[in-house]
Task: inverse folding
């Protein structure tokens, strides 16, 4: 019998000796494939990396940097890694991921003493960070509510649109941001909630809205929750920034807690990318609050079945880091301190950016820089102004005018403010 190597050598010879048909038919498979559009967020990082200018600044992607502009690994994470090094095998996790990590993660969203956790009414699985959690939910929604649509705020994180599009769930939008006040368009939001067909699905940012940095007040959340009850809408919370809004993960879960108090059966995506700095570890959680334990068991089994052909089971390392930190009171306290430290540095940079712009004599109002919360400042700059920042000053950010405040440092804030002033002063 001919060996596999001999066969493949023969094929290679035939292809290289001018059997045009083989070359043509192989290359014709993909001739209709056009290059994909650049991702509006990750494409900015690619462009930044390709720039060789010494003063370049990246305030595009939402990834925390220290005051020297360097990526940060939290001390609690380093300590957890020291503790787990060599202690575990590399076996598969179950399809639903690490039970210990999921249990700890639910406490952050639903509360340490949540009755729903005690009653085992939450169907929850480890997910590939917040994106993976949203994607799993979108697939689940399509499978079990095939005629439903998803209402998404305008604006939102650009990938939300991709996620529900790929799951083939039709998208509707609801008002959120008021461009003139650079705050919440609460009246229009409420109108959209009231006018949506009863029993609609809404995707809500639990805190530190991306990209605007504008959140409803506690009172407004109560009104939203009340109206959701009246309309029997389903609230799916994407909580990618727990801890980044106020510096306190418990306070940042307020919107979710209000909905729980009001008796909603919610869904929730959680991520440790930002608040534990575990970006590349892809660790998060999807949870769905059910009517009872029996329903939760069924829902969880279906979520696992959706995960199985997509990626089989989630990765181990990040989950182990998270569960090690959250199950140890000392490490958890260290984490809480470090989250607050990150949030505070960003708040400090907001003040500095605004001060710099005002000291330069900018004719525009910049209060929103300090009013907005979380990782992002929705500056109000136009795509053309952003293009000028990039082309003339080597400052990289998304074309919707979003500044990742996590990338602003004592060293670059003056340069950033000057450049913003130059491109906006005559508008
Ligand atoms: C962002 O909005 O910059 C982050 O959530 C990163 C991402 O994946 O888009």
Result:
């Amino acid at each position: 019998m001919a060996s596999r190597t001999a066969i493949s050598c023969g094929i290679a010879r035939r292809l290289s000796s001018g059997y045009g048909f083989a070359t043509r038919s192989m290359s014709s498979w993909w001739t209709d494939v056009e290059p994909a559009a650049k991702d509006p967020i990750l494409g900015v990082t690619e462009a930044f990396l390709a720039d060789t200018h010494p003063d370049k600044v990246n305030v595009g992607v939402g990834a925390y940097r220290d005051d020297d502009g360097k990526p940060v690994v939290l001390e609690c994470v380093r300590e957890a890694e020291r503790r787990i090094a060599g202690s575990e095998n590399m076996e598969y996790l179950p399809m639903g991921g690490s039970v210990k990590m999921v249990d700890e993660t639910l406490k952050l969203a639903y509360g340490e003493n949540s009755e729903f956790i005690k009653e085992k009414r939450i169907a929850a699985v480890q997910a590939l960070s917040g994106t993976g959690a949203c994607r799993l939910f979108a697939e689940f929604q399509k499978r079990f509510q095939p005629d439903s649509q998803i209402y998404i705020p305008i604006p939102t994180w650009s990938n939300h649109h991709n996620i529900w599009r790929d799951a083939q769930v039709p998208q509707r939008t609801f008002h959120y941001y008021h461009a003139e006040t650079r705050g919440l368009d609460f009246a229009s939001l409420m109108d959209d909630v009231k006018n949506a067909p009863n029993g609609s699905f809404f995707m809500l940012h639990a805190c530190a809205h991306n990209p605007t940095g504008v959140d409803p007040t506690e009172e407004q959340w109560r009104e939203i929750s009340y109206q959701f009850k009246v309309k029997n809408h389903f609230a799916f919370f994407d909580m990618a920034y727990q801890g980044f809004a106020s510096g306190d993960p418990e306070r940042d879960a307020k919107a979710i807690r209000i909905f729980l108090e009001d008796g909603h059966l919610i869904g929730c995506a959680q991520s440790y990318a930002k608040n534990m700095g575990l970006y590349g570890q892809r660790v998060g959680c999807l949870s769905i609050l059910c009517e009872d334990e029996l329903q939760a068991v069924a829902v969880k089994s279906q979520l696992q079945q959706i995960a199985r052909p997509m990626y089989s089971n989630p990765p181990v390392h990040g989950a182990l880091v998270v569960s090690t930190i959250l199950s140890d009171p000392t490490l958890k306290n260290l984490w809480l301190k470090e989250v607050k430290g990150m949030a505070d540095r960003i708040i400090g940079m907001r003040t500095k950016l605004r001060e710099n712009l005002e000291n330069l004599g900018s004719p525009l109002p910049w209060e929103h820089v300090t009013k907005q919360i979380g990782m992002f400042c929705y500056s109000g700059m136009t795509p053309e102004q952003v293009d000028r920042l990039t082309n003339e000053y080597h400052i990289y950010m998304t074309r919707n005018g979003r500044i990742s405040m996590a990338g602003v440092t004592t060293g670059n804030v003056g340069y950033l403010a000057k450049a913003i002033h130059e491109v906006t002063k005559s508008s």
Summary: The chain has two domains: 42-73+343-424, 93-327. Residues 41, 61-62, 157, 159, 210 surround (2S)-2-hydroxybutanedioic acid (CB under 6 Å). The first strand starts at residue 57 and ends at 58. Residues 42-73+343-424 form a domain with the Aspartate Aminotransferase, domain 1 fold (CATH 3.90.1150.10).
